[in-house]
Structures
1.
Amino acid sequence: MSSFNRSVSFKQRAANIGSPRFSRKTWVSRLFRALIAIGSLVSFLLAIGCGYVYVLPNLTHAFHDHDEFGFSNSNGSTDSCDVFDGNWVLDYSYPLYNASECPFVEQGFNCLLNGREDEDYLKWRWKPKNCDIPRVNVQRVLEALRNKRVVFVGDSMSRTQWESLICLLMTGVEDKESVYEVNGNMITKQIRFLGVRFSSFNFTIEFYRSVFLVQHNWAPKNVPKRVRSTLKLDKLDDISKEWIDSDVLIFNSGQWWVPGKLFGTGCYFQVGKSVKLGMSIATAFRIVLQTWASWVDSKINPEKTRVFFRTFEPSHWRNLTLRECNVTKLPLSEAEGKDFSPFSETVFEVVNNMIVPVTVVHITPMSAFRSDAHVGTWSDRPSLSDCSHWCLPGLPDIWNEIVILYLLGNYEAASE
Ligand SMILES: *[C@@H]1O[C@H](CO)[C@@H](O)[C@H](O)[C@H]1NC(C)=O
Ligand SMILES: *[C@@H]1O[C@H](CO)[C@@H](O)[C@H](O)[C@H]1NC(C)=O
Ligand SMILES: *[C@@H]1O[C@H](CO)[C@@H](O)[C@H](O)[C@H]1NC(C)=O
Ligand SMILES: *[C@@H]1O[C@H](CO)[C@@H](O)[C@H](O)[C@H]1NC(C)=O
Ligand SMILES: *[C@@H]1O[C@H](CO)[C@@H](O)[C@H](O)[C@H]1NC(C)=O
């Protein structure tokens, strides 16, 4: 029994199951498909702005009631164990799934399939200093998610994590055909919505592409010519209404907040009617997070929805301008400063002032060491090296292990 068990609070979260979401599904999904079609067209048209043209190179098992599954409200981080403070240890029982047997890993992330030959990068487990992350009990997670809706919102890093969670859980599903994308869509880089349904368990794991979390529109009239589009920093993305009625909501944002994807494409910031030409990216990011925080505080029912914000994913470029990088065979021994990100710091600052509890999944420091975990040239575009995105299986699986730890508490650890 690790010290972790004793210190985690096992107060049961009132799992509020049984809203009639699926009965509304048919008309909602028809309307929604139409919205997506319009949305896709708009994002296509906006392709010239905000870097759309520039795709990155690429419940606790109730201790007192073992028959009922619900979410735990453990935050994983207690006085005696901070799950984010630890190190990588070799564990040959990893990886957790075979990407070639999971239809939801996009080819660009399946490094083994794309020719990567070294395999050590698949074998690392995250070991917090004062506790262990229990091995994921897939059957228990599947049961805990029954009748629920898990929603990922963010950029391609969020999509990777979405793919990872689906594949992880599919290892526990015998009839693979019973798991399918609700609209029969293929995974593509620009797609605004993907929803994978685990029909035997009546839950969905959804992904909404919203790289900046806020609305992106054509520039208003009477602005300088270089302004082609604007991000409305005070208006959460218009697909945000789809995120409300979920049970688990996992956000991220960060990779698109760079000059090249913003000003470089004529995309500037707007607050109200006013275009803010001189505003820095750091300031804009903070305003967006405050917009996001007010939205969460006013729209999300914390009794129903568990909210997470996953922090910034470090990249490992040798020279980003030249798109040069070397994927290493082993993790770095030093974080080389990549364990700090101003974006992650802003997430903490904003979340600390919110009413609805939000769990910050602070993957920045642990991921800083993983220069071995990127897709490199083993993506769907082998001519370009990519030290931003990650192989699957791989590092995003570990992010999900931590999310699962927060959702389920550490029942397994307690029984070890
Ligand atoms: C986690 O929960 C414990 C006790 O429930 C609390 O003392 C601690 O501050 C929380 N940590 C975070 C990061 O929220
Ligand atoms: C993954 O599955 C594929 C197809 O079933 C198989 O060919 C391959 O050897 C497996 N890879 C590993 C690493 O087990
Ligand atoms: C599936 O889940 C929804 C809630 O998400 C619930 O309303 C519905 O009754 C469930 N269906 C079945 C067959 O359990
Ligand atoms: C990357 O390469 C460019 C072009 O050679 C050079 O100007 C720049 O200084 C390099 N950046 C770094 C961080 O080395
Ligand atoms: C890193 O990659 C570059 C090409 O991108 C190559 O020239 C160089 O030798 C590599 N360095 C190491 C240490 O492998």
Note: Residues 25-45 form the longest helix (21 residues).
2.
Amino acid sequence: MATARLVHLKAALHRRTWASSPAPPPALFRLPNIVVRAFSTTMSPPSKAIVYDEQGSPDAVCKVRELPPVPIKDNDVCVRMLAAPINPSDVNRIEGVYPVRPPVPAIGGYEGVGEVHAVGPAVKGLGPGDWVIPSPPSSGTWQTYVVKEQSVWHRIDKSTPMEYAATITVNPLTALRMLEDFVDLKSGDAVVQNGATSIVGQCIIQLARVRGIHSINIIRDRAGSDEVKQKLKELGADEVFTESQLDVKNVKSLLADIPEPALGFNCVGGNAASLVLKFLKYGGTMVTYGGMSKKPITVSTSSFIFKDLSLRGFWLQKWMSSEKAKECRDMIDYLLSLTRSGELKYEMELCPFDQFPTALDKALGKLGSQPKQVIKF
Ligand SMILES: NC(=O)c1ccc[n+]([C@@H]2O[C@H](COP(=O)([O-])OP(=O)(O)OC[C@H]3O[C@@H](n4cnc5c(N)ncnc54)[C@H](OP(=O)(O)O)[C@@H]3O)[C@@H](O)[C@H]2O)c1
């Protein structure tokens, strides 16, 4: 969706002085003893944003830019952003490898939380101080002030921890939908997943647990894997294995009382996807929703003939069609309530906006395995 600021950004990019000139001051005129700032109620503050002019490696193309104020139209809401995560799909959009992406020049980010700063005269039911998230999410959350129509924003409970409010849609909602939409699971059943340390993975463990469903979890080999296993078990994981531990003839012999899973989740590909398939029972389904290793999935002929496995895919952006928008907000409110009650938690690291390059390096995996990076504005 082309935002007002993005349109402005495009226009501004053609002005040579744009990046270095401060925004023009609001026009002033004087009445006896008072100063009236013409337009001050209809213009946003200037915004500081992470902008990319071309697609490419995010650490090469992302720049911090000062953007001039934009008008706050009748139905617009101007939001002061509080926090926004760096998700793998944000990186893919900037790289130009995500199927749906904003045209360049663009502002990074897709989800986040902010506080209403000002509203247009026709806006009802939202006011300064309210906390809102873009729902469904939309591009351009990596900036200090976002102006979009009221319909984009969903007001949320302000007692929600900020970092959870900022990250509640893309990953937790994916976990929730994938547990619901593919196999009719009952309490006592089991699921298997790779990429268990991801936010989606941590959510799957806990949302499964809430429903009495066991989880078998696969993580990458690493130094300190015992500590990681312990953390996932504290979230409710029944079993956690490193990939190398599963280098055995019969992985199912490693399971004690947990039933064979009918549903598996894959966000890694390569060997890690084959391991998910090995755990599945006859007629089981593996849902692929990510490809972190960038390696293809290889499926043995016998998996089809002798196990009749099904391979499916999930894409939240497709799922969140406009008819689902209302339902989607109810689900988000449910997930937010779980974060407030402590039933849903995941590891994150808040990073001040001025340290964005460090957060980006961590999100790009340059500094090894790191918690989810959440920019704090
Ligand atoms: N299809 C959809 O609609 C949808 C929606 C949401 C998310 N996703 C996808 O879900 C996946 C997880 O997203 P997230 O935000 O939850 O992740 P995250 O919290 O940012 O964590 C990244 C995960 O990827 C793993 N990883 C990173 N590089 C890897 C590599 N080269 N090989 C194997 N594993 C690697 C990390 O493992 P370590 O802990 O070992 O570093 C960690 O588990 C991503 O692929 C994302 O694109 C898809």
Note: The longest helix spans residues 325-341.
